[in-house]
Amino acid sequence: MITEMIITIAFVVALVSLIVYVYKRSDLKLIILTRRALKGNAKAQYVLGMFYEHVKNYRNMEELYCLSCEGGNKNAQLRYASHLLVGNIVEKNTEEGVKWMTASAENGVQDAQYNMFLMNVMETFFPPDEKQAFYWAEKLAAKKEKEAIELGMYYTSNTDDLKAYTKMVNF
pLDDT of 108-150, one tens digit each? Predict the structure, then answer.
């Protein structure tokens, strides 16, 4: 309850600072975007998050990305997950990063699906999981992406999975 209140207060403070900035610049598009974000529009929150990232206000960026992710914005989920996993401009949080990367992948973002495949093949954030790697490879193959061929190459080393490779390259 207190955490939610703190997040809400931080969000309002971030948006008020953005409103002040926008009015100083008299940029009508940012004013409209800010209003939409205040009303809970996940896409507007994502775009404002990118604006804050551009102006290097990472605290507000993180708040807006988080809200947009919770609102179901699949692109925000991918971008925020990438920041969390790398830890370059936000505090590294592997658990949250994997959570949002998975959500983005499940929402059909091909880059996220490819990332999930790689994370399940290599020992980057957790132990390799061939079953999950195969799951994400099939998702990509179903979309007939060129990456599917690369993913299939992984399975050629395992004769049991040769059938999966054949399925992937025979679109």
Answer: 998 999 899 888 888 777 787 888 888 988 888 777 655 555 6
SS3 assignment, position 43: helix
Beta strands in the chain (DSSP E): none
Task: Round to whole Å and give the CA distance between 112 and 98.
Answer: 10
* 8 A C-beta contact, residue 74 and residue 104: yes
CA 125 to CA 8: how far, in whole Å? 31
Written as one letter, the residue type at 30 is: L
H or E element at residue 86: helix 74-86
- Cα angle vertex 152, ends 148, 156, to 5°? 170
* Residue 25 in tokens: 């610049």
- What's the pTM value of the predicted model, to 2 decimals? 0.68
Q: Look at residue 79 and give its three-state secondary structure.
A: helix
Give CA–CA dist 48/62, Å, rounded.
Answer: 10
